Amino acid sequence: MTQKEKDTIKETILQAITDLELQIETLEEKAKPIAPDCSLGRLTRMEAMAEQEVSQKILDESHIRLTRLKNALLRIDKPMFGICIECEEEIGAGRMSIRPESVRCVACADNH
Ligand SMILES: [Zn+2]
Prior knowledge:
This protein is mainly α and 112 residues long. It has helices at 3-30, 42-75, 93-98, 106-111. The protein has one domain: Up-down Bundle (Four Helix Bundle (Hemerythrin (Met), subunit A)). The model has no long low-confidence stretch (mean pLDDT 92).
């Protein structure tokens, strides 16, 4: 991977972190527990709870991805960045630019 490719990926990671942090803020609002004294009707309340559950799930996934992206940012200047942890081949700039948090190449990710 060239330095230029790394610079581009670094930009991608920083942008993704900013987007995720915004998304997490919005989701945290939506994932707040529904107050028991909520004046909603029963059906609306069930819908609200289902929606809250979905938000919570996306929120959890977002937190995991945020951690992975931050880890990728710490690794990016190290020689192992972009190298698959399974087969030690280059993951490839294409995949890294789409999923910069990748630690496995496509083949190993499929087998995992
Ligand atoms: Zn691999």
